[in-house]
Design goal:
Layout (H helix, E strand, L loop, with lengths): L8 E2 L10 H7 L1 H4 L13 H18 L6 E4 L2 H15 L6 E5 L4 H12 L3 E5 L9 H7 L4 E5 L13 H10 L3 E5 L18 E5 L10 E5 L14 H4 L7 H14 L3 H22 L3 E4 L9 E6 L4 H10 L2 E2 L15 H5 L4 H5 L1 E5 L6 H21 L14
Parallel strand pairs: 1-11, 3-4, 3-5, 5-6, 6-7
Antiparallel strand pairs: 2-8, 7-8, 9-10, 10-12
Helix pairs in contact: 1-9, 3-9, 4-5, 10-14, 11-14
């Protein structure tokens, strides 16, 4: 992946992914050869329009949608904002109540908080110890004023997969729109918007080996939605701004590759993930796996280690060439640990000591071996100097 002073062991694919060579190759002609504005009428623009149209077909095929239901934008956060604000504002005369969960991405939570300041009412449903929302709780929360339910397909931190199809059925039974943030799920979970009862779906290209700054929103036909970005008439008058043609082409190619063999991909990744989980829990005392043990993304392993702090774990892993992430938000200037981990019932101490390892296409068994060699040593060293560590906790001895 990267050769600096030492080899890099990249274990943070939930944060972002590299672009695959096939994606780069697909994009290349649209930087110089087919650079025309796709909205222009002259023949030279036809190449750009053709690239955008092909990508729209690729995205729709991956989701079980129609090409006319796919709208390109600048990423998952914009798609979430558009779906939630657009649905809430377009249906305000019907009601002002929205239902979501306590563990959504901040692109959803902060959007809902903004709507609350505009006079909307939002219910934030709790989750169980594994991060799963109860569909019965969704149904119980629906009122005559509810216009939208927004529940993510899979959680970005702990990897838990939600019962989306059941929630979609409940929403439709009550005449309520259903949005899902599928940013982490596309390419990892089979998605069929018709079968799953999804009206609005957000995705982001850089999560499945596509370019950054690209995304799409699926909008079921005849769904009422206010525009988020105003200006020209691009994206059939629903999202203004000259299209990022190379990025859209890259997103289309990336989603085509990512969804070609989800089952085979998951089988390989999950085998490495399961070995990683098994060895970490058996060799490092006072460790636990966060998230659902089986209903989780194949590449996600999220741990909590007592008596240590997540940011310190990351710094020592980085010194050994391992890229990972943590639920502790210290590096962002906040002393609060992950809202997701707290929602599952972890204490502040346990949530602060979290580590997320997310595998990807380039990872090998050798990478897992290296992490399993380094991680116990890192946790042991940190526990030796931690004032929280009680005596005789079974901390691995370090030379």
């Amino acid at each position: 992946m990267n050769d600096l002073d030492q080899r890099t062991f990249y274990m943070d694919h939930a944060a972002t992914t590299f672009m695959k060579p096939e994606v780069i190759a697909a994009m290349a002609p649209y930087f110089s050869e087919h650079f025309g504005n796709p909205s222009s009428l002259y023949r030279f623009a036809a190449g750009s329009r053709s690239g955008v149209d092909a990508a729209r077909r690729q995205v729709s095929a991956a989701l079980g949608a129609n090409p006319g239901e796919i709208y390109f934008c600048a990423g998952g956060s914009e798609a979430d904002n558009w779906a939630i604000k657009g649905a809430a504002l377009a249906n305000r005369e019907r009601g002002n109540h929205i239902i979501t969960t306590a563990i959504e991405h901040h692109a959803v939570l902060h959007t809902c908080e903004w709507l609350e300041r505009q006079g909307f009412s939002v219910t934030y449903l709790p989750v169980d110890e594994f991060g799963r929302v109860d569909p019965a709780a969704v149904e119980a929360a629906i009122t005559d004023a509810t216009t939208l339910v927004s529940v993510m397909t899979a959680n970005n931190e702990i990897g838990t997969i939600q019962p989306v199809a059941e929630i979609g059925r409940i929403a439709h039974d009550h005449g309520v729109l259903f949005h899902t943030d599928a940013v982490q799920a596309v390419g990892a979970v089979p998605i069929d918007v018709e079968r799953m009862g999804i009206d609005l779906l957000s995705l982001s290209g850089h999560k499945f080996y596509g370019p950054k700054g690209t995304g799409a929103l699926y909008i079921r036909r005849r769904t009422r939605l206010e525009n988020l970005v105003h200006g020209g008439g691009q994206e059939r008058g629903r999202r203004a701004g000259t299209e990022n043609v190379p990025g859209i082409v890259g997103l289309g190619k990336a989603i085509e590759l990512a969804t070609a063999d989800i089952e085979g991909h998951n089988r390989r990744i999950a085998a490495m993930r399961d070995r990683l989980v098994r060895e970490v829990l058996s060799t490092i005392p006072d460790s636990r796996l966060n998230g659902h043990p089986t209903e989780r993304l194949a590449n996600n392993a999220n741990f909590s280690f007592r008596y240590v702090e997540g940011e310190s774990i990351l710094l020592l892993l980085d010194a050994r060439g391992i890229c990972a992430s943590t639920g502790s938000a210290c590096s962002s200037g906040s002393l609060e640990p992950s809202h997701v981990l707290l929602a599952t019932g972890l204490s502040h101490e346990e949530a602060h000591g979290s580590l997320r390892l997310t595998l990807g296409d380039a990872n090998t068994e050798d990478d897992v071996d290296y992490v399993l060699e380094v991680l116990p040593d890192v946790i042991g060293r940190l526990r030796q100097i931690s004032p929280l560590t009680p005596p005789r906790t079974g901390v691995p001895e370090v030379d």
